[in-house]
Write a structure and sequence with these properties.
Blueprint: H1 2-19, H2 26-38, H3 45-70, E1 81-91, E2 94-101, E3 104-110, E4 119-126, E5 129-133
Parallel strand pairs: 3-5
Antiparallel strand pairs: 1-2, 1-4, 2-3, 4-5
Length: 134
Amino acid sequence: MEYVVWSICFAVFLVIELVIPSLVSVWFSIAALIMVFISPFIEDMKVQTFVFACISFILLLSLRKVAKKYLKPKDSLRHEEVEIVNTVGTDKGRKFYEVKYKGGIWSAIGKEDHNKGDILTIGSFDGNKIILKD
């Protein structure tokens, strides 16, 4: 009957992973699913919990590097392009612009003078501002 407990654990960890999608509980979710099938062969709940912890730890160590390869890192956004929509002003050698990025208008900062319609590459982000690669 412990497989019911592990099924509930699987569902809870899966919901947590769906709500917080940053590889927080996916390891526990997979381990709980494995325990659904293993638990009928292990009578003691303490042993089951130990096996669950071991499986979770092994999954965490072995799959984290693989999973990171398939996730899009934040730095990959730096190679995307934006279009200058409007020049807002200058201050201390910096130029402030409004740019079109992913269908929305964002604030951007650059060092060079640019005109409306120019296409530039994102250098980085500073909070909700785009730093242009001049």
